[in-house]
Amino acid sequence: MRTSFWTSLLDLIAPRRCAICGGRLEPQEALLCADCDNELEKTPFPESPYDNLMARLFWGQFPIEKASAWFYYRSHSDPSKMIYDLKYHGQMLLGEDIGEQIALRHQPFGFFDDIDAIVPVPITRRRQWKRGYNQSMQVAKGISYVTHLPIYNKVVKRQHFSQSQTHQTSIWERRENVRAAFQLVDADKIKGKHLLIIDDVVTTGATVIACGQELAKAEGVKLSVLSIGYTKE
Ligand SMILES: [Zn+2]
């Protein structure tokens, strides 16, 4: 965390801006101004991480422990722009700041206490090359700064499919593609561990399920899930 002296000094040179409204941040504020932080529709999941709407998406799919998200996601809402900036506007460091805020929100509930390592959902090499970074990895870094948990970003990889998703007509085909997209590459490293999967936004859970099922091929793995947003139906 930044000390207040350096924050004050940096604020004089380059004022920090709220990631949602763009307003100037006070020295004690981080990422969001007080107004935007109050407006943000945070989920109650940190209080009941074993049984909530998001956790239920994963029940029966893989050995799920806890699931939580920072806030309820709605497309075109003001907070959704923050995720858009992270994914499409090259705002790489924003991901780390978001990760820190997510960690600070969950830490008081002991959410990280029994977790061994963080696994960001991988993106394809092609997308990583285009974007320059994996947004979930950036969030994982921020969480790691706060929790000191190690990040395993090479235990599972994501393959590229030549068909564009927009050309697939059926949901079934799309799901089949997502299901086959992940490949476990280092089962030994994760054997018997409790891993925290990080994704940006969870809606149907299909991506996390596919990634989780691949990780669960390693013996004795337990999984928890944490995301920036959760889309409430
Ligand atoms: Zn604001």
TrEMBL record:
Residues 156-219 form the Phosphoribosyltransferase domain. Transmembrane segments: none annotated. It comes from the Bacteria. InterPro entries: ComF/GntX_DNA_util-trans (IPR051910), PRTase-like (IPR029057), PRTase_dom (IPR000836). Pfam families: Pribosyltran (PF00156). Belongs to the ComF/GntX family. This is ComF family protein. It comes from Prevotella communis.
